[in-house]
């Protein structure tokens, strides 16, 4: 390991790099191997963190690690939730913090070339400052960055209209396990040239290669947006209203659900005071388009929600009202985190099912959590049949940890029984490997492992994630 680190330092120095890009600072190692957000944190920390400045530097690092068989773990925003960037086999964490530039902006083509460490919020801020009229619509955790978003094939509240990360990638520059640099495609929005390598790297969690550049599509900022909030007597009424909106083909920009507990949590958290929310299952809508289409969509959604026992239909008449109405959704996870006491943590997990099954799944899962005496809230991207459960638990209490694990396992199994998936957007990491196996079966995981073996025969890239390291 020390030989490898010395070799990395001296090769980069020979290439003209002045700074020492290798850190072995204890706090740095901890921050790159442990996550407060994560449902799991396997034992082990990286032995070093490297901070490359270019694709070429990443290639040198990979070549040397390949020579000495040292694990390499990509790190961008560090907001992933299933132990994704943990280092159970030690090795080197590659933090792209110094690779956060916009390299090329092609306004006419509505695309942009970026390095992996630019955050999606910063990217949008820059596009706004340039008055470009364009934005990047994929919106996961606030601190997420493009490299990690590609790693997890993330999405967020905008997915019901704009799709997920995989839909926004035009091409990628990737450093492979042995240091080889490849580019997956050129720059047109469509291409049928050979295998879809974008599809292979997006969602591969840094197990097949390290992404050092990405060309991303951009969307037009809509002329008009608005927000509406409606509450319902039960989660089933909310879900059937949401299904009605989808089946009517109303192009909502976002459609989110929060249960009564989550609404109470927002009130308790106080982040949206003085506004006090009705503590009932609630749907949040965003509308986007032309003035006329937004108004038309609001009217149609209001009619559908009313027919499903929705009440208190509130819609925003100004930008500040939009912010206020959306704030409960925006503050939801922070509000839950704010309620932690002592050694309590929040286990945040996601599953997705065909959306007609969502109400069944939520109802059974809520009942089980209540019966087990767990404090848990639900929120979800209901238009995609994707929902999140946030469960409060004491990490130092083994009985409580066991209960949470049981609830999550049961929820995942129920989702799978409903032809769903163990994760709609958070992806597998270290925490959901058994669920993936159950979801797709050993033959499909076997194909994934063959792909891994072909690209990374020494198994050095983020080992132990998605599936176990073969013995
Ligand atoms: C408050 C909060 C809200 C969230 N909401 C959502 C949500 O709505 N939707 C959603 O999908 N997720 C959500 N998440 C999860 C998280 O934001 C996403 O998983 C996000 O995509 C992770 O990006 P990151 O930059 O933080 O990645 P990281 O945590 O740094 O890494 C994620 C994975 O990608 C790999 N990786 C990192 N950089 C590279 C690279 N350059 N090349 C190859 N592999 C790389 C890592 O090794 C790791 O396996 C939320 C998280 C939080 C904390």
From TrEMBL:
Main location: mitochondrion
Domain FAD-binding PCMH-type: 42-221
Keyword Signal on entry: no
Record's keyword annotation contains Mitochondrion: yes
Pfam families: FAD-oxidase_C, FAD_binding_4
The reaction(s) this protein catalyses: (R)-lactate + 2 Fe(III)-[cytochrome c] = 2 Fe(II)-[cytochrome c] + pyruvate + 2 H(+)
GO molecular function per UniProt: D-lactate dehydrogenase (cytochrome) activity; D-lactate dehydrogenase (NAD+) activity; FAD binding
PROSITE patterns: FAD_PCMH
Sequence similarity: Belongs to the FAD-binding oxidoreductase/transferase type 4 family.
Protein name: D-lactate dehydrogenase (cytochrome)
């Amino acid at each position: 390991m020390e030989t490898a680190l010395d070799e990395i330092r001296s090769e980069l120095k020979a290439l003209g790099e002045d700074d020492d890009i290798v850190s072995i600072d204890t706090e740095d190692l901890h921050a790159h191997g442990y996550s407060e957000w994560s449902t799991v944190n396997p034992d082990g920390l990286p032995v070093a963190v490297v901070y490359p400045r270019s694709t070429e530097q990443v290639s040198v690092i990979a070549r040397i690690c390949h020579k000495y068989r040292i694990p390499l773990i990509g790190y961008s925003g560090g907001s992933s939730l299933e132990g994704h960037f943990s280092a159970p086999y030690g090795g080197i964490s590659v933090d792209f913090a110094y690779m956060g530039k916009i390299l090329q902006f092609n306004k006419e083509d509505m695309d942009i070339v970026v390095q992996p460490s630019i955050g999606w919020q910063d990217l949008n801020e820059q596009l706004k400052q340039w008055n470009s009229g364009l934005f990047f619509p994929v919106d996961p955790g606030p601190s997420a960055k493009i490299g990690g978003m590609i790693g997890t094939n993330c999405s967020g509240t905008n997915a019901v209209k704009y799709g997920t990360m995989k839909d926004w990638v035009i091409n990628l520059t990737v450093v492979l396990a042995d240091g080889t640099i490849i580019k997956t495609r050129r720059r047109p929005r469509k291409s049928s040239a050979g295998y879809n390598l974008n599809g292979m790297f997006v969602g591969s969690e840094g197990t097949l290669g390290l992404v050092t550049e990405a060309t991303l599509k951009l969307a037009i900022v809509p002329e008009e947006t608005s927000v509406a909030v409606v509450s319902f007597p039960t989660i089933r009424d909310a879900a059937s209203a949401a299904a009605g909106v989808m089946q009517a083909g109303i192009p909502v920009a976002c459609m989110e659900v929060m249960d009564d507990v989550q609404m109470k949590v927002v009130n308790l958290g106080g982040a949206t005071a003085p506004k006090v929310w009705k503590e009932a299952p609630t749907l949040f809508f965003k509308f986007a388009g032309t003035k006329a289409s937004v108004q038309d969509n609001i009217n149609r959604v209001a009619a559908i929600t009313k027919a499903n026992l929705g009440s208190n239909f509130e819609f925003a008449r100004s930008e500040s009202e939009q912010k206020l109405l959306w704030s409960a959704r925006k503050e939801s996870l922070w509000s839950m985190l704010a309620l932690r006491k002592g050694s309590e943590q929040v286990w945040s997990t996601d599953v997705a099912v065909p959306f007609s099954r969502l109400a069944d799944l939520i109802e059974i899962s809520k009942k089980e959590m209540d019966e087990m005496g767990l404090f848990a809230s639900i929120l979800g991207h209901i238009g995609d049949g994707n929902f999140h459960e946030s469960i409060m638990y004491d990490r130092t209490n083994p009985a409580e940890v066991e209960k949470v694990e049981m609830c999550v396992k049961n929820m995942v199994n129920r989702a799978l029984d409903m032809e769903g998936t163990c994760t709609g957007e958070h992806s597998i990491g270290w925490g959901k490997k058994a669920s993936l196996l159950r979801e797709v079966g050993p033959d499909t995981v076997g194909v994934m492992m063959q792909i891994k073996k072909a690209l990374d025969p020494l198994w050095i890239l983020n080992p132990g994630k998605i599936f176990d390291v073969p013995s």
